[in-house]
Amino acid sequence: MIKFKIYNPNTKMSTLEKLNTTEFLFKHLEQYGDKMPDIEKAVQYALKETPSFGGFVLEGYDENENVIGTVVVNKTGMSGYIPENILVYIAVDNTQRGKGYGKELMNKAVELCEGDVALHVEADNPAKFLYEKVGFTNPYLEMRLKK
Length: 147
What we know:
About 30% of the residues lie in helices and about 20% in strands.
């Protein structure tokens, strides 16, 4: 059973906690992750440290207070055709995978969200199966233009 800590605009993270969270995500997202500055921006957005709609950072800990996993959710400020929340990152310690922790973290994150939730996942990411088990579907094909 995971112990959860939730950080949001009302329950701030210390500078060291933010650094540890960013480094954890960078390490455990592996090839499906982003650069450290981009991860840091998503965390700052969730905590409303930059102009944003906010969101939250959810961390899961084992009985020894070791981080098992982390989730970052940003509010979009939208609703209807664009979900109210985007699950930006979810990562489980790579030595703890396959034990159901990802599903626990995902379920808790969804429970904390007000409104619908979207996420992006690469087609070859094994976590795609977890997302489908929790109830996420893929009704759209996302296309992007990078400038």
